[in-house]
Amino acid sequence: MTLSKELAEIVGAEHCLTGTDIGARYAQDLWGSDRKGDPQLVVRPGGTAEVAAILRLCHERGVPVVPQGGMTGLVSGGVPGADEVVLSLERMNQVEELDRSTRTMTVQAGCTLAAVQDLAAEHDLMFPLDVAPRTAATIGGAIATNAGGLRVLLYGMMRELVLGLEVVLADGTIVNGLHKLVKNNAGHDLKQLFIGTEGTLGVVTRATLRLRPAPQCRFAAMCGVADLDAALDLLHRLQAALPGMVSAFEAVWDDAYEVLLPVRDEITLPLQKVHPIAVLIEVSGVDAGKDLDRLHRALDDCADIVGESTVAATAEQVGLLWQARERIPKQILQMQPLFGFDISLPAGLLDQYLSEVREELRGHWPAVKLLVFGHLGDGNVHIAVVTGEQTRDRKAVVEHIIYRAVRRHGGSISAEHGIGFEKRPYLHYSRTAEEIALMRLLKQTLDPRGILSPGRILDEASQ
Amino acid sequence: MTLSKELAEIVGAEHCLTGTDIGARYAQDLWGSDRKGDPQLVVRPGGTAEVAAILRLCHERGVPVVPQGGMTGLVSGGVPGADEVVLSLERMNQVEELDRSTRTMTVQAGCTLAAVQDLAAEHDLMFPLDVAPRTAATIGGAIATNAGGLRVLLYGMMRELVLGLEVVLADGTIVNGLHKLVKNNAGHDLKQLFIGTEGTLGVVTRATLRLRPAPQCRFAAMCGVADLDAALDLLHRLQAALPGMVSAFEAVWDDAYEVLLPVRDEITLPLQKVHPIAVLIEVSGVDAGKDLDRLHRALDDCADIVGESTVAATAEQVGLLWQARERIPKQILQMQPLFGFDISLPAGLLDQYLSEVREELRGHWPAVKLLVFGHLGDGNVHIAVVTGEQTRDRKAVVEHIIYRAVRRHGGSISAEHGIGFEKRPYLHYSRTAEEIALMRLLKQTLDPRGILSPGRILDEASQ
Known about the structure:
The structure is a homodimer of 463-residue chains.
Chain A (H helix, E strand, L loop, with lengths): L2 H9 L4 E3 L22 E3 L4 H14 L3 E4 L16 E4 L6 E5 L4 E5 L4 H10 L2 E2 L12 H6 L7 H4 L6 E7 L5 E4 L13 H4 L8 E8 L1 E2 L3 E9 L2 H14 L4 E8 H4 L19 E9 L2 H13 L7 E5 L2 H19 L5 E6 L5 H15 L4 E7 L4 E7 L5 H17 L18 H4 L2 H14 L17
Parallel strand pairs in A: 2-4, 3-4
Antiparallel strand pairs in A: 1-2, 5-6, 6-10, 7-11, 8-9, 8-10, 12-14, 12-15, 13-14, 13-17, 16-18, 17-18
Helix pairs in contact in A: 1-2, 11-12
Protein name (chains A, B): FAD-binding PCMH-type domain-containing protein
Cofactor (chains A, B): FAD
GO biological process, one term (chains A, B): respiratory electron transport chain
């Protein structure tokens, strides 16, 4: 019997797609690089037992499998390689339980981030992870990539928000670790193996998520400051004045801010002038009257370092500020060709890093533009390099310049997007040979036939 | 050449102890069970390279090794088994760097928790992990056991406070992952393998710790409440009123509170009456005047569920409350013989759990006492069962009753103390067969000769 027939027996014929039945969504990241796969076989299991049966079969046959969530990744991790069976979790999109007493939600991996956020909000709770493609991104994908986003500063990355996981191993073994406990030192915390390993060690099928009390009010402000030191000083002074309340601290450097000027009719431009750095601060509180006063006072106390500021006091105004912030990557993505990066550094080194990189890039392309924005509170910025023409040679030069400087300053070549295929050649810039050898050992141990997302993170040849 | 001579060549003769030169500190946990080892060989390396050389040698020879920190564990993990070489990290007790700009501290594994806390405080920063034996407990031990303690509620367990690790593997390979980054998705987050695995997968030699801004003021309160529901309601109302400020929420059930009565001359008894549950709340803030008012107002708003309360407004008063709280386990430990437990449950189930367990124990020993206290905010309590006589048979009966009920309610047999030797027979009460098989696979992969802390967490026979 052919593989597709056997897979169809597991999931039902209508959920085993071949040939022209396979839609474009299975071939490529929604907003990632232009790497495109040519999937020949897509299976859409309806539950964990079906995922296990699929993997058992593919393991026996030595057939490679790539799990897919919402395809909102940015490193082509979900883009199918040749001969890979696409394992789409899209049908496993149910919330199984919201437990108010433990403030947990147990969901299937294909559940979208927005669905989880919305259901939590209906119960006056909050699931704090937030990324722009929230309506498409899935919980399974967020776990596989240890997603970060806009509120890591106060609530942590996805790793901190998962209490329990159910995972199917490469050979089809189901490991049910759907615990609801905040503290559990009964042996290894096995979920840590699967969070952030991009589907290369197992397929996440269900998760128990940790919810937080919903803030009763949210305010925001945008401030223009003169340089990085002022921005970091502002962060630390606001965190000291408003402890536990600064839920986002996003920075936009001038060149990136300027992409908003041509669309000023469509958005509300927050500041009158273009400052060296514009900072978006979000504050989450419990007392709408008092907390707004506290934010105003805290900003007044920072008048010596803030050039211009605007405070968003209503939900609508807060929404407009976020709309402006989220418009930036959208505008930048239209400036193709560009080379995009997601790096982290000790935050205090960012200005030095950027000036070194800018100078080196200008040596190659005098008119090069560096558009920089991101999660300054976490030392994580996104950089778009616009050199004009986009060639393979040029890509290699830009990547070397960006990543060599990251290595020099002890940073990470991937703060939150992961490695996938795209950053694999540079993994050793942020990890030692011994660390990479240990990753390889784990991969060989958990997936001895190399069927799970082969070639992501680590190259296949030496797996 | 004998093993001891070769080890002496690595660390120097004065740091390789044999026979009667071996002090009592290497044989037994300071406050744990009465399991006692009979160490024949103790090595005290002065740095990572020496640790690597020791492990390389022991790996070649197939000699088992047990790393030791401050011996403040409670599950006999550091107690040497027969023929085990004791690898004491006591000489590796230096702080290597405090980096104010990244708010990190890089320390050797043998550095004490108190030393780290004190140095952070000198720089107006805080290392938030706190456990009673802070002057003896080491950072390496806290990492190996994923320590919890008094402030997990606001700051997380040790896992959340470690940014980078240097580890020596069983074969002597040094894996340097001393990163300072909050966000780093460049491949596997390997430190997770070693945090909480009790020295069975590698020896932690150095760590980069995450520091927090020091709170500018701390207040506390003790409240008597009528039952568990009231205690949890109080917690949630205080967290809502004082977001990001409730840094501890400790509960003491009546029988445990009563152990303070005989020593009321030595401590300040916080409450006039013995309530079903006494709760100690700690609040960390930034504005001494306003935050104390906020605490008073928040407590006033909870008058309907608080029977009696006292607020500690000065550092001295706060200290007295903590002194009373920390006196409880000390008094209980004097009530030998007793059987001690460290469990976690979904917090809302604790009362039902305790009444089921109490009833079952009374069936065996009508006069049994259950002394219960702990970190209610995390669903984690410590239970001391006093049955009178302490025999092996009786121990087995008590453990079965305590742990069967934990299993029934989906709890953990070890919230923060780990498994070690002591809880190994019950690991499967909190973990599935597939989870345990995966732990075994990791152990076999990282320590194929089984030389690192053999028999802890998993039994040796099947390793």
